[in-house]
Amino acid sequence: MANKYSKTKLEKFKKAITEKMGSVSEDIETIKEGIGTASNKQGGVTPDSIFSVHMADAGTDSHEQEKSFMLMNRESDYFKKLKVALERIEEGTFGVCKVCDALIPEERMTEVPNATKCVQCKENEKLGLK
Ligand SMILES: [Zn+2]
Predict the structure, then answer these.
(1) Cα–ligand 1 centroid distance for 100 (angstroms)
(2) What is the DSSP letter of 102?
(3) How many angstroms separate the alpha carbon of residue 118 from the centre of ligand 1?
């Protein structure tokens, strides 16, 4: 494999990704806590009050909760992607396009650490050329 990032570069990526994973997992925890609080609040509502004054509030709560769940899913997806990126670093396939073997530019790998294709190949794929 001629096209490969240097060990130093890979270490740098690894550090950045590990740090990102730390902050993403913190975000997930925060969101989880938020969802927990919202559930508790709803759990305290008696059936009577749901159908009277709190109808609108309850609706808002569940909507907020739904948003939190979506956000949490997105964050945990991102976390998984970062993990995959770390595995690629270990394997030595990080930053190498799996279609044409070209080295994917550093900026792109910083932005999308789990990218497996270079921009050109990605574009071709989008156009259905392959
Ligand atoms: Zn490529």
Answers:
(1) 4
(2) P
(3) 4
Q: Using one digit for the tens of pLDDT, what is the confidence trace for 17-57?
A: 999 999 999 999 999 998 887 666 555 544 554 454 444 55
Domain region containing 48? 7-93
Q: How far, in Å, from the CA of 101 to the mean position of ligand 1? A: 6
Q: 41 CA distance to ligand 1 centroid (A)?
A: 51
Identify whether 112 is part of a domain.
no
Report the length, in residues, of the chain.
Answer: 130
Any domain includes 119: no
CA 18 from chain centre, in angstroms, equals: 13
In a domain, 107, yes or no: no
Residue 120 CA, ligand 1 centroid: distance in Å: 6
The single-letter DSSP state of residue 117 is: S
- How many whole angstroms from 122 Cα to the centroid of ligand 1? 7
Q: What are phi and psi of 96, to 5 degrees?
A: -110, 125
- Pair of tokens at residue 65: 């909760």
Q: Could you give the CA distance from residue 130 to residue 119 in angstroms, rounded to a whole number?
A: 13
Structural domains counted in the chain? 1
pTM above 0.85, yes or no: no
